[in-house]
TrEMBL record, chain A:
Species annotation: Pedobacter kyonggii
Pathway: Amino-acid biosynthesis; L-tryptophan biosynthesis; L-tryptophan from chorismate: step 5/5
Name of protein: Tryptophan synthase alpha chain
EC number annotated for this UniProt entry: 4.2.1.20
Family: Belongs to the TrpA family.
Active site: E45 (proton acceptor), D56 (proton acceptor)
Top-level taxonomy: Bacteria, Pseudomonadati, Bacteroidota, Sphingobacteriia, Sphingobacteriales
Molecular functions (GO terms): tryptophan synthase activity
Keywords tagged on the record: Amino-acid biosynthesis, Aromatic amino acid biosynthesis, Lyase, Tryptophan biosynthesis
A Pfam family assignment: Trp_syntA
Job description of the protein: The alpha subunit is responsible for the aldol cleavage of indoleglycerol phosphate to indole and glyceraldehyde 3-phosphate.
Length: 255, 393
């Protein structure tokens, strides 16, 4: 069974961490994954960097740029992930924009994911219609979950369509925003989270964008199967000893 | 209709709407409404009234005598430089501001390269009393200072884009991020035939007034509405698409699109997209773009801020791939020389963007007597600094 499915069957209050591959140093990708699992992360989203990340705020933009300037490519990333499954047991997704995938080759990308033991992908600028027509078969053949995003503005009919098209989880954005905006849980956000909860979707949901501390994490968990932390983590590992930074950061949530 | 957009938002292999979910509701709202709104008789009436009384259309089609003598062909200049605000960009911003009002939007954002689209957007926002935020690359803010001052005077907020090459591509990224963060009351007036469907089609429709008028004017002046050639420069491609629009299905009219070669197509400092680019996705559509083998977008270079963009609109990619259009390029130096030549032969200082199209005349061979229309997309006031430095004036 796909590791993502298994995780959601077995656990609640799932903590998923996003980080940019090749940041702060090109060789850090696997080390961060191991450290995160060791300190209690339930799932990982490894970002493959892109030169024009329109859905990202300044922190993830900067980490992407640094990683690219230091030479990160998809080829290199898959090379780094070769022994992933000897070192990491939790589900791993790759997250990035569609153009690098297109240039790498969709089929080859899916094969490479399957080969190194990646369980799913999040490609925010890959539209649902394109996915359905050109990517879905390939993803399914390689047992990869494709995760879609929804926002407070996503129409209900579309949410159901997305629910039918994916088999991992649904990524609930706390608001329509680029990454790194702080989550303000006001009445409208809570109403939106409740509305989604009451749709009884077949897929689990994870809340993301703007989760930065235990309080916002717990809040998110009361409405969804868990939450995703990105910007706050990327900031936390910018400098200093990597193992220490990771473990200190995770203590805030798992302590 | 062979070259127009299909119901899925594609031109052959190009187009689509590659956008994150955050932009979907806005883009979908546009997609469902743009044709309905544009085709409405009241909209058409108001649009054309403003083009006439405010922009000063129709823009003249001027038979340039001394150019014609030089090249041995009838060289016509479509004078978009005479529009209010000095370029073709205002055709599109008038259309989109009326559309934004119909959609009930309260806040307008735009990207700009040369500053012409920024000025044209700030102008219509002043005209209709709407809040206006313009994103502009730091490099462009410096090299197009007069336009920055104009935008501010018009009441717009000019926000510098400081990522990447600090030019048009990065300004576009910032505008898209703004739209993601302001999903409800904001309309994004994209300045060229780029972006997710329906933008390329919508902008082309608003700019198509250029070729609509040209056809009528040619018929009056030459007895035929079919020229032998039409030429235009291509940044994203909006003046070119406006110039080509009503000639696309007239297969005997040759369409020539002039890209910016920068310091030379092989110099590493170029914006000659069709020559250097490959198929890929940028700013919401599948098209041709300059990129590394790993799919990272390459930073372009052109002396002209309006052409300093690593992609072209999807419809251009289609015209290129099908061979319907001929895509050529002109270097920085060739364009500046052509700008001076136009000034001295015809008494018209062209925008450096437009000078790229004019420069290609030097490379064409004419049998004699052909009718050639060049889109003079804008005036050169904004470029005086660059001209002065280059020619030591
Ligand atoms: C005068 C002029 N011509 C051409 C362009 C290039 O844009 P497009 O290719 O969309 O016509 C610009 C852009 O700023 C411009 O100001």
């Amino acid at each position: 069974m796909n590791r993502i499915k298994q995780l959601f069957q077995e656990k609640k209050n799932i903590l998923s961490i996003y980080y940019t591959a090749g940041y702060p140093n090109t060789g850090d990708t696997i080390q961060i994954a191991e450290a995160l699992e060791k300190s209690g992360a339930d799932m990982l989203e490894i970002g493959f960097p892109y030169s024009d990340p329109v859905a990202d705020g300044p922190v993830i933009q900067a980490s992407s740029k640094q990683s690219l300037d230091q030479g990160m490519t998809l080829n290199l990333l898959f090379e780094q992930l070769k022994d992933l499954r000897k070192k990491v047991t939790i589900p791993v997704l790759l997250m990035g924009y569609v153009n690098p995938v297109l240039q790498f080759g969709v089929e080859k990308f899916c094969e490479a994911c399957a080969e190194v033991g990646v369980d799913g992908c999040i490609v925010p600028d890959l539209p649902m219609v394109e996915y359905e027509e050109f990517y879905k078969d390939c993803f399914e053949k390689h047992n990869l979950s494709n995760v879609f995003l929804i926002t407070p503005q996503t129409a209900e009919e579309r949410i159901h369509k997305i629910d039918g098209l994916t088999n991992g989880f649904i990524y609930l954005l706390s608001s329509s925003a680029t990454t790194g905006k702080n989550l303000e849980v006001g009445n409208t956000t809570e109403a939106y989270f409740s509305r989604i909860k009451n749709l009884n979707l077949k897929n689990p949901t994870m809340i993301g964008f703007g989760i930065s501390d235990k309080q916002t994490f717990d809040k998110a968990c009361s409405y969804a199967n868990g939450a995703i932390i990105g910007t706050a983590f990327v900031k936390a590992i910018a400098d200093g000893n990597l193992e220490e930074s990771v473990s200190n950061f995770m203590k805030k949530f798992k302590g | 209709m062979k070259y127009k957009v299909n119901e899925k938002g594609y031109y052959g292999d190009f187009g689509g709407a590659y956008i994150p979910e955050m932009l979907y509701p806005n883009v979908e709202e546009l997609r469902q409404n743009y044709l309905k709104i544009i085709d409405d008789a009241d909209f058409q009436k108001e649009f054309h009234q403003l083009l006439k009384d405010y922009v000063g259309r129709p823009s003249p089609l001027y038979l340039a005598k001394r150019y014609s003598e030089r090249y041995g062909a009838n060289i016509f200049l479509k004078r978009e430089d005479l529009n209010h605000t000095g370029a073709h960009k205002i055709n599109n911003t008038i259309g989109q501001i009326l559309l934004a009002e119909k959609l009930g939007k309260k806040r307008i954002i735009a990207e700009t390269g040369a500053g012409q689209h920024g000025v044209a957007t700030a102008t219509v926002c002043a005209l209709r009393n709407l809040e206006c935020v313009i994103y502009m690359g730091e490099v462009d803010i410096e090299r197009q200072a007069p336009n920055v001052a104009r935008m501010k005077m018009l009441g717009a907020k000019v926000v510098p884009a400081s990522s990447g090459s600090k030019t048009l591509k990065d300004a576009t990224n910032e505008a898209m991020r703004d739209w993601i963060n302001n999903p409800v009351d904001t309309h994004y007036i994209i300045g060229s035939v780029v972006g997710p469907h329906p933008y390329p089609d919508m902008v082309a429709i608003f700019q198509s007034i250029i070729s609509e008028e040209t056809k009528k004017q040619l018929l009056e002046q030459t007895g035929s509405d079919q020229p032998d050639y039409v030429l235009a420069c291509v940044g994203g491609g909006s003046n070119a698409m406006g110039m080509f629009y009503h000639f696309m299905d007239d297969e005997n009219v040759k369409l020539i699109a002039v890209e910016a070669a920068g310091k030379g197509v092989s110099s590493g400092f170029s914006a000659a997209t069709t020559y250097l680019g490959k198929e890929g996705v940028l700013h919401g559509s599948r098209s041709i773009l300059m990129q590394t083998p790993d799919g990272q977008v390459v930073e372009p270079h052109s002396v002209s801020a309006g052409l300093d963009y690593p992609g072209i609109g999807p419809q251009h990619a289609h015209l290129f791939k099908t061979g319907r259009g001929q895509y050529v390029s002109i270097t920085d130096e060739e364009s500046l020389d052509a700008g001076l030549l136009c000034t001295q032969l015809e008494g018209i200082i062209p925008a450096i963007e437009s000078a790229h199209a004019l420069a290609y005349l030097e490379k064409m061979e004419f049998k004699g007597g052909e009718n050639v229309v060049v889109c003079l997309s804008g005036r050169g006031d904004k470029d005086l600094d660059t001209y002065i430095k280059y020619f030591n004036l």
